[in-house]
Amino acid sequence: MQARKAANSVREGSRGSSFAGVGKAAACAVLVFAGTVACTDGGPRAGVAWFVREAPSSLTAVTLRATGPAGERSFDVRVPQSLTEQDQEGGVTLHVAAASLSSDGKYVLARLEVTNDLAVQAAAIFWTSTQIFDLVGGRVGTISSERFTAFTMRGDAVVYEDEAGALSFVGIGADLVWQRGDEGGAVRAEKITSEEGWGWWGSAPGSAIVFAYDVAADAIRVFDYSKLGAGIVSELPGALAAHASPGPGGIQECHGMSAAQDCFDQPFITNADATLFLRRRSAGVLEFWDREQGETFEPRGFPEALDAEWTLVSGLGASSVLLWSAEDEEFARWNLRSNRVAKFPALGTGPWTGAWLDDGRAFAVVARSGALVRFLEDEVEVISAAQIGCDSLLGDTLVFGPTGARAAWSCGFGQLSENGSAFGTLVRVGPGGLSSTTGTTMLPVAIDEDGDVVAYSAANLNAAEVSDFMVPRTLYGLDADDELRRMSSLEPAPLLVRRAGFLGNDGSMAYIFAAPR
Predict the structure, then answer these.
(1) What CA–CA distances, in Å, run from 73 to 63, 69, 134, 135, 281?
(2) pTM of this prediction?
(3) What is the CA radius of gyration of the chain?
(4) Side-chain half-sphere of 409: how many Cα atoms within 13 Å?
(5) Looking at residues 138-165, what average pLDDT do you find?
(6) Which residues pair with residue 50 across a beta bridge?
(7) In angstroms, rounded to a whole number, what is the distance separating the alpha carbons of residues 512 and 454?
């Protein structure tokens, strides 16, 4: 794009229903990128959600706002009256401690906490609740748990430990789970008990299988949550892993394998449909389980071709896993059934970011400098080898499309506008190569398979952490042809919340959640 004059205003475009750019209208919006004017009518076809606090006086309430397949929705959440009546020492504040959006963009899972502003820090939290919001049906359900709660990787269920320590499964797509009336919106869950609780659980994106570690039995229970009436699918010997894998959700948060490769060294990984399970015991020995071969693990050493220090990254397709060597800056695709290995160097200039996508059939890796590669079960696709200078990623902004064939992020180059605001460059990579636009900083929150982006504008991004950024100003939909539509003025400002990952909170922060489908 050629820069002209900097855009100083934005007009609303006509409302459309397609984030993917279907059915263009003639109405225009002024693009916030410096000197570029474009038109669009595109809206999100999947969910985009954020929390707001309407006013400082409403500290006992927050609102979830969402735009998606059912249009615009809002959900008001308030502190229970009984808690505000018990307040004797100061104001009560409702916080959104963690939140996440399901992979189809239809549900939001949020952990809420109430604090007394004058309480001692260690005892400040005196009420917690987890709620799930149906963005399409307009329903709200309450989950009875104070422990980690998260969507499965397939996105069609929520798994958590309830207050009694039972492993609980909620199928969010089934109408029967949404209870009404006297039960206060509580969701119906299938529960599996253990005498000493569950140490960890994990799932895969292409399967309804959940692996869960039963502490009392020192065993891994394997459940099919779509058929819980059948009970335990199988039982495996204990994993002896100190903690569970951070999972694909956590993997995506590790910006920089070369700088933070330990985040990619998983205690266990599964393939896409959870029929294979590779774990590292506490002594470092690899062990392998194949559902087709029975219910026991067999020792499995690294193949001779892998003579460096390799770490486990992700399952891949039906039979393979992906490995990473920080020393050599290269990947290896290892087929666990054939024992074949193929190596591939990390392209571009790191750090590199990766994510398990396309229902587990692919693992995508992008370099900060622009190269995008998609690893498949039997091949490696170099989507783009183009490069761009990028001093640093602006916050936690890198997003992938649903199959890993596209990615977008925001880069900083130390540029300043006439009024002293920091410029940013929005980078998009896909099958057509690399494109970039420099201007007022835009932080992407989702990109779909057509290259359409949901992003928000912000200024004065002079810090390295999202928590230090200026609050988002406006939410936009930017399509593959660089046409842009304002989706929301983001007034009042979105709350900064912790992103809930594969196994609960993963520590990263976000203002807005979006799904690329």
Answers:
(1) 10, 10, 10, 7, 47
(2) 0.81
(3) 23
(4) 27
(5) 82
(6) 65, 512
(7) 10
